[in-house]
Amino acid sequence: MEFIARLRRLWQYRGFRRLLVVRIAAQIADGVTQMGMVSFALFSPQQQASGWAVAGVLAVTLLPFSIVGPFTGVLLDRWPRQRMVMVTESVRLAVCLAIAAVIWATAHGSVGGTVATYILVLVALSFNRFLLSGLGAGLADVVPEKAYLDASSVMPMLGPIGLVSGGIIAGIIRLAIGSSDPVHVAHANAIIFCAAALCCCATVAFNSRIGRLELGPIMDGGYKRPESGGPGQILRGLGQGYAYLRKQSPVTQGLWAISIEHGMYGVVMTCMIIAYRNYFHSASDPNSAIVDIGIWSLASGIGFAASGIVAPSIAHRIGIRKAVMVLLAASAVIQAVPGSIFVRPMLVLAALISGVCIQSIKVCADALTQIYVEDEYRGRVFALYDMLNNVTLVLGALVAAVIAPARGLSLPVFLGVAAVLAIEWAVFTLLSRGWANDPRAAGAALEPRAS
Q1: Residues 6+ apart with CB under 8 A from 375
Q2: Cβ partners under 8 Å of residue 345, min gap 6
Q3: In whole angstroms, what is the distance from residue 429 CA to residue 326 CA?
Q4: 8 Å CB contact between 127 and 92
Q5: What distance in Å separates the CA atoms of residue 121 and residue 100, rounded to the nearest whole number?
Q6: Torsion-angle region of 408 (φ positive above 0: left; ψ -120 to 50: alpha; else: beta)
Q7: How much is the pLDDT for 60?
Q8: What mean pLDDT comes out for the span 260-274?
């Protein structure tokens, strides 16, 4: 299999092996944490899912990092990224334990406990986004340039496997311990966050095997000790990073392509959560809804994982630009049929194929960032990358909250998403003509095939 051949070639690099293990462990922890938040906020017996509830959960968990992300990106370009990963994951471990304690102590219900849980989850998931930005920025420091596309395809494939695995772990805990009794559900949610803390502990242990300077930043051929990090220097660093990014049109266009895809995914995901909670199942039966949304999410996750096979196979043959064009067109078509046929098997099939398309576009955007962005700017660019993805996902959920019906499913909404994706394909095709013949964006030139 071609993916196994790529992984075998990458496996020879010790830094890549260690980075990959850290990424998988971190995303298992992230999957457990996210499922714990969803279980707490949307699938408790006393909760009623709505578009505003879903958008609120996404806003609480994603937007804070979107505000501070560009500033933390400056830190990733100034301090050893391995140390930044170690600190952030250690903090997240402590926060997950605190969340578990709060949920357990307020099992009978408390407004203060609910507010404290939201704030702590906000901190935990924001730190995780910072961690993933650091790992993404350090990827180019552990593999040679010719392997950027392959490395960028393997990470987004195995990372979502960790995310889905974490979600499955949390789902099993919730279904095994939780019931219709709110106290039992609260105890199950607390145990879920204890499991997340254990996964964070494993991430710290694996990250300790990576050298202090192995993930960069590397400047002028070696590590450059950072200057003092005053607010003025941080702002100047941000300005320099944005000015640099404006000169790299392939990277900018790739970032916007995947950001819009995430926005439309936010619309569909919000509608599906509402539909499984309020349309396909009774509002008094949250456990059945969890099973069904778990199946839909698993299909989407399998599609994300399959992108590690699909994206490089296409990009090596026709180049990164044409690969993005093909994937954008495919995502528009799939959203129309079967994505707008409101029977559960068709919706699951659409989640699978859309997952392949969305994550494959991300693989291409990641590769463009690794290819075009110098190491001393890469932390800021990856932080901006995460910020755009988070903001557009939340905006998509807000759009769904405004226009989607109370039961979630609407043919005009779903066909409207398909139309937006089709327009995105046309705009990207037009704007990207300027780098159509750039050999750096030709996937076949990045890594020779295994014989």
Answers
A1: 137, 140, 141, 216, 217, 218, 219
A2: none
A3: 10
A4: yes
A5: 10
A6: left
A7: 67
A8: 92
Top pLDDT among 124 and 358 is at: 358
Residue 44 has pLDDT above 90, yes or no: no
Give the HSE-up count for residue 91: Cα atoms under 13 Å, Cβ half-sphere: 17
pTM for the whole structure: 0.73
Structure tokens that stand for 18 in this block: 């260690």
Residues 6 or more apart whose CB falls under 8 angstroms from that of 392 comprise: 259, 260, 262, 263, 266
Torsion from C-alpha of 197, 203, 208, 213, nearest 10 degrees: -120
Q: How far apart are CA 261 and CA 48, in angstroms?
A: 28
Residue 380 corresponds to which tokens in the numbers above?
A: 């800021």
Range of weakest confidence among 1-5, 217-221, 363-367, 405-409: 217-221
Rg (CA), the chain: 21
Average pLDDT, stretch 5-28? 89
What six digits make up the tokens of 247?
A: 């000169």
Q: Which of these, 58, 62, 80, 33, lies nearest to 129 by C-alpha position? A: 62
Ramachandran region of residue 439, left (φ > 0), alpha (ψ -120 to 50) or beta?
alpha
Between vectors from CA 434 to CA 430 and to CA 436, what angle results, nearest 5°?
90
